[in-house]
Structure formats: C-alpha cells, structure tokens
Design a protein that fits this description.
The complex is a heterodimer of chains A (271) and B (443). With 271 residues, chain A is of the alpha+beta class. Chain A has three domains: 55 residues, Electron transport complex subunit B, putative Fe-S cluster (3-methyladenine DNA Glycosylase II, Chain A, domain 3), CATH 1.10.15.40; 95 residues, 2-Layer Sandwich (Alpha-Beta Plaits), CATH 3.30.70.20; 73 residues, Alpha-Beta Plaits, CATH 3.30.70. In chain A, 32% of the residues lie in helices and 11% in strands. Chain A has a two-stranded antiparallel ribbon with strand order 1-4. In chain A, strands 2-3 form a two-stranded antiparallel ribbon. With 443 residues, chain B is α/β, with parallel strands linked by helices. In chain B, helix 4 runs parallel beside helix 6 and helix 5 crosses helix 8. The two termini of chain B are 38 Å apart. The chains are: A alpha+beta (271), B alpha/beta (443). The interface between A and B is medium-sized, with 23 and 26 residues.
C-alpha cells in the first residue's frame, strides 16, 4: 500500500516540477508573433500549391505581413476572401490578372494519325521513350494523362478524344502541369487572352496535315489577316500581345485546321 | 597499368536467353540493292550532331562527305549513293522523334562505283592527322552505342593502352551480323586488329567470341598469330557490353566511374574494326554496314550489307516482306533494340538488326506486383538493385535514383528478362534516367 502511495507521490512531484520548468521556459523564450498571422492562415485556402511562389500558405502569410507581396498573388482564393485579407492588412488587393493553363495541341484521337499501339507503362513520360507512344506527331499530346494525375485541384480531366481538358474555373495556374508534361505542351496564359494557337508541330504544309488534321500547316493566313499581332515563326503563328491592339477573332476565320482558335467564354452569347 | 590476365571465360551475373540465331547464322551476307531514296539523320552518333555542307539540289558522289563533325565528339556523314540532295528537313527516325536529316535521291543511271581513293600510309602520317581522317570517315562503334572511334583512340595524356580487345560476342539473340563479318572477313579483321594495335601502341590483342560461333572461332584461329589471341567465351548475355567483355576476357571488373582505358584496354566491336581496316586500306568511309533482318515474321531472314540511310521497309521488302503474322518490328536486337511505330525510318550507323516478331510482350498493365524474389538483383551485370530503382522511379525521386547509381545502368534488360511478375523494369529504369536528366537540366 505504501509502495503505491510513494510511487504516486514521486510521479506527482515530478509532474509539478516539470510543469514549473515549462512555465518558466515559456516566459523566458517567448517569441512575439504577429496576431494577424493566424488569422491570415485561416483565411488562405490551405492548399499549399505554391502558385504564389511562397512555400505553402503559411509562407505566403509571412510574405504578406512582411509586405513583400500582395494578396492578389494568391490565385486560389476567391475575390471576397482576397478583399478580406486586404482589409485585414490594410493594403490594396493588387489583383493579379487571372491566369489559366492551356494545351498547345488539339490533336485528339480522331485527328492525329495512329501508327502503332502502345502497351508499355501507362504514362506520358514512359511513352515518349518508346517511339513516342505510336502517334504520328512527335510534338503533340500523348494522351496518357500525366497532367490529370498531377493536378491537385481536379482542374484537368481527360476527355473522350484523349486530350486533357482544363476547367478554367478550377485551374489556379499553379504550373504543375507545365512542369509535368514531358513535351512541354502546357502554357499559363492570362484568361483574358482569347486568341490561342493550339498546335506545337513545326512541320509545314502537306507534311503537317499528313500527321494530324488539327495541325497548323503554316499556311500563314492568320498572320496575313492580323499582321499587327501575328507572325509566322518555325512553322507556327506567334502572337505578340500589345496593349494598344485589340485582338479580334477574325484571325481564326480562315484557319482550315482550327489550329488557331478564339476561346469561348461565358457571356459571349449575351454580348 | 599492365594486369595479369585471369580470364574466367565469362562475367558475373547476367542471363541466358535462347539465341535464335540459326535462321541466319550460316547465311552468307548479300549486298542490299540500291533504292530510290536515302535519309541520313544528322545525329547518328553519341555526342554532337553532324553539320551539313550540302544544300538541296546539290549533286553528290557515292562516298562524298556531306556533313562535317559538329565538335570533337562527332563524326562526318557521307553520301551512300551517287545522286541529288533533295532536302534537309525533319524526317521520322527510330525513337519517335523527327530529326533534321539529309534526304538523297539516287541517280538511276549512275554505276554507283566508289571513286578510287588512296589507301592511308599509317607510318607516314602523324597521329593527329590519322585520328582526324578516322573522324572524317565517319567511323563509330557499330555495336549499338555509335561512339566515335577517334575519341576512343584519344586517351588522356597520362593513360595508355596495352591490350586491344575485339568484341565478337554478339550476345543479343537473333543477331548474326558480327558473326558473318568474322567468318567472311576474317583476314580483314586480323589486319584491322594489327592496325588497332599499332594505333594504340598496345602489345597484345584478344578477340573474344562466344562458343555458339564455332566457325568464326575456327576461321580466326587458323590465321591469328601471337600476340593476337582468339578467346572462346561462354555464351551469356550481356557479354558484348564493354565492361562485361573485359571481365570475361581479362578478369578485372572496371568499376563505375572508371573507364576501360584506366586499365589499359581498348574494346572495339568486330564490325567497327573492319570498317577502320577498310578506311586505311582503300580509303572507303563508313557508308554501309552489316544488318541482320530476321525473326519469325519475315519471309526470308538474311544478312545484308546495307547502305546507311536505307529505310527499314526497303530492307524488309528485299527479304520478301513481313508475314501477315507480324505484330512488332524492332530496330536492333530483342533485348536492347527500339520498337518501331513506323517502317519508313532509316537505318542509322548504330543499328545492327531488324527483328520481326509475331507476338507481343505482355502489356505493362498486366504485370504482377514485385514479389521481392531478387532475381533482378542476381541478373544485373552492374550489381545494381533494379527492384529498388524501379520503386524510386515510380515514386519520382531523382535524388535517390542518383544515389543508387542509376547512371551505371546501360539498359541491357536482363532484369526485365528474368522478372517472374512480368514487370517492365528496364522501361521504368529509362523513366528514372529521364527523371534524373530533368532534374540536372533544372539545376
């Protein structure tokens, strides 16, 4: 009986002693932390995607408090949240233009010629090592969905034609698909830019059309119709974006393969 | 450093695939007739691509230099026929890429006789001139890697060669082109070996041949005199790999990070040695090579002497065409060759066979799980742990792959060959190598 009592007494005594040490340590080593930090971390989306350039949301909150960035650099949070963050810090939202990932290829199953079957490891990175996975165009999308798997926001989905389809509402321009694609087919573009070249093949004329019916054959009509902003380079149109010149869908009107396109957006029909 | 020879007639680990060489082993080689068009990719060798010195419309003679080396580790290209350059443009090639290539249209009225050129007097020429001549004759290793010969012959100043090893293993199943070269051109091979000894200053030479080629061993033994020795080796794959052959013929294992020259060895494939001999004796550049067209899905398997740039489909046509049972065509051997998705790709210097198969390997999707049986570890000739490397590649961990020495893997596919679960290990290893290369390029 007394053994039990002794043990309880020793353990309780030790507990009290350590509690005292910890309480003292907390006083001595106390770090002053900005109370806004916790509030900011709560407001931020918590996806830790890295699209803002900071290491995760807490890192971004640090940067915000230090004034090295503006709330608008977060591409994930919705506008109301950004307003709230800006209000909390007493700064401008500094809204960055909304950007989305776009695929430089429109060669779906029906368009690109298939030369051979592929039975290797089911990943784009694997297929490029085996004769390009059997599609005729070595520059175009392989369609095995490495981008779909890497996207943490579910913004990319492989469609029936075997091409990744980006949902612009879900895409936060985090750059992961850009890095993942072994053929570098993704680009991050401001959503407001609606003229887009969805082809990556440098081939011209018949050689291009023989591989894929959606390929740019470098006919140059788009450049002729919009000479101010489009220039043909290495078998593809290159769009030069100027503030002064408003792009117009007319550049796409005479494109026979659909390689240059005017991206449809909500509200097009209302206007 | 001269080492005592402790030949074991083979190397450690490795695998024993069936050799399937009977279809072509006894068939005398025949020259491939000229075809209408030749396509020469500018990048055919390890190192930098060649730089064209002709333009569309130019007339060229057979054997004429049409592209010059693009650096030290690069060689020239030569016209395989007399004809006209029709274009320099991207053309499909084995491996899936479209690479800039010189396209030639054959002149149907030309005799296609090689212009007579002077033999090279190797005593009168100094070393640098001689190496330059080898570089400008476009000579590369014909065993598969296409490593420029002149680079191999230029050791660092503090190293020197004491042994020339001629690689006559031809351990890849199905292929018999080196076998035919050793039988049909045995005198030329002995002369070339002597030439290599003089060029390197080596005082002995060994011709390593696997015992499944008894006629080649016999033919060379009857004319080889000391210090050239013909050494029969046990049949095992991948004995034709440089480091494996050194271990088999000489004893020492060349460790990772060291080169054969550190031990005084120069290893040359039998075909490349003969190409060098032809250059020295007749001035002929590398414009053709021996190719084995074989497999259960081609009508008449043959050994062909084919001009570089001939399309795979033309070679198949000359061999009676593909049978209806054909499911897969591979450029090279079954273990290390490249599966083709189109047949209009050209023959390049490093390709030694066209293999036509009537069945496919099981799809990667049907592979079972790794059962940790360690057969791949026992098979790997480089003493790697392929199973672990595959797990790291799947997990996408390039730093760990580098730490586990993925760079030592030369993709011999012994691991895939023995895996009882049918896991395409070598495919994952290549993915792993691509991951480490990506990481390096980002740094």
């Amino acid at each position: 009986m007394s053994t039990v009592a002794t043990a309880v007494a020793i353990m309780s005594g030790l507990g009290v002693l350590f509690a005292a040490v910890l309480a003292a340590a907390q006083r001595v080593f106390h770090v002053e932390e900005d109370p806004r930090l916790e509030a900011l971390v709560d407001l931020l989306p918590g996806t830790n995607c890295g699209a803002c350039g900071a290491p995760g949301c807490a890192g971004f909150a640090d940067e915000l408090i230090a004034g090295r960035t503006s709330p608008g650099a977060c591409t994930v949070a919705d506008p109301e949240t950004l307003e709230e963050i800006a209000g909390l810090l007493g700064v401008d939202v500094g809204m960055a233009e909304r950007r989305v990932a776009r695929l430089k290829c429109a060669g779906d199953e029906g368009s690109v010629r298939r030369l051979a079957g592929y039975a290797g490891v089911p990943s784009c990175r694997a297929a490029v090592l085996v004769d390009g996975g059997g599609r005729a165009c070595p520059w175009g999308c392989i369609g095995l969905g490495d981008c779909e798997r890497i996207c943490s926001f579910g913004a990319i989905e492989m469609d029936d034609g075997g091409l990744p389809k980006v949902d612009p509402d879900k895409c936060v321009a985090c750059d992961k698909c850009v890095e993942e694609c072994p053929l570098d087919l993704f680009v991050i573009e401001p959503e407001s830019r609606r003229l887009f070249v969805q082809c990556n093949s440098p081939l011209e004329g018949e050689a291009a059309r023989a591989q894929c019916s959606a390929s740019c054959d470098a006919c140059g009509r788009c450049a002729a119709d919009a000479p101010d902003i489009i220039e043909m380079k290495d078998g593809l149109p290159v769009i030069h974006w100027h503030r002064e010149i408003e792009p117009h869908p007319r550049a796409t009107w005479r494109c026979e393969t659909g390689a240059i396109t005017w991206i449809e957006q909500q509200g097009d029909r209302d206007g | 450093m001269a080492l005592a020879r402790t030949s074991r007639s083979t190397f450690s680990r490795g695998v024993h695939p069936r050799d399937y060489k009977a279809a072509t082993a006894d068939k005398t080689s025949e020259p491939m007739p000229f075809v209408r068009e030749y396509v020469l990719p500018l990048s055919q060798n390890i190192g930098s691509a060649s730089v064209p010195i002709v333009k569309a419309g130019d007339r060229v003679q057979r054997g004429q230099q049409i592209a010059v080396p693009g650096g030290f580790v690069s060689v020239s290209l030569h016209a395989p026929v007399t004809g006209t350059v029709t274009a320099i443009e991207p053309r499909p090639r084995a491996g899936g890429a479209m690479d800039p290539s010189i396209v030639l249209q054959t002149d149907p009225f030309s005799s296609q006789r090689l212009p007579t050129s002077q033999p090279i007097d190797i005593d009168a020429w100094d070393r640098d001139t001689l190496l330059k001549a080898i570089q400008h004759a476009g000579i590369v290793g014909l065993g598969g890697a296409a490593f420029p010969l002149h680079v191999k012959l230029s050791p660092p100043p503090d190293k020197h060669f004491d042994t020339v090893i001629i690689n006559g293993c031809e351990c890849e199943p199905y292929l018999t082109c080196d076998h035919r070269i050793m039988v049909e051109r045995s005198a030329a091979l002995i002369n070339s070996t002597k030439l290599l000894m003089r060029l390197t200053g080596a005082n002995r030479a060994i011709i390593g041949i696997e015992t499944n080629k008894p006629d080649a061993i016999e033919a060379l033994r009857s004319i080889a005199r000391a210090p050239i020795e013909v050494l029969p080796l046990h049949v095992k794959y991948p004995q034709g790999a440089e480091r494996m052959l050194i271990a088999a013929a000489m004893g020492p294992e060349v460790p990772a990070g060291k080169l054969p020259v550190d031990f005084g060895f120069l290893v040359s494939n039998a075909g490349s040695a003969v190409a060098l001999g032809d250059l020295i004796e007749t001035g002929k550049p590398l414009i053709d090579r021996m190719v084995t067209v074989t497999g259960p899905a081609v009508a008449e398997p043959k050994n062909l002497l084919v001009p570089i740039g001939t399309s795979v489909s033309a070679m198949l046509d000359h061999c009676g065409g593909l049978l209806p049972s054909a499911r897969q065509v591979v450029l090279g051997g079954p273990m290390m060759g490249m599966s083709l998705s189109r047949l209009d790709v050209p023959l390049v210097k490093g390709a030694s066979g066209v293999l036509c198969l009537d069945e496919l390997a099981p799809a990667a999707g049907e592979a079972g799980p790794c059962i940790r049986c360690s057969r791949c570890v026992e098979a790997c000739p480089m003493s790697l742990n392929p199973s672990r490397l595959v797990r790291l590649a799947r997990a996408g961990r390039p730093e760990d792959l580098e730490r586990s020495h993925i760079a030592s893997c030369f993709e011999c596919a012994s691991c895939s060959f023995v895996c009882p679960s049918g896991i395409p290990l070598v495919h994952w290893l290549r993915i792993g190598k691509a991951l480490t290369a990506d990481r390096k390029s980002k740094q």
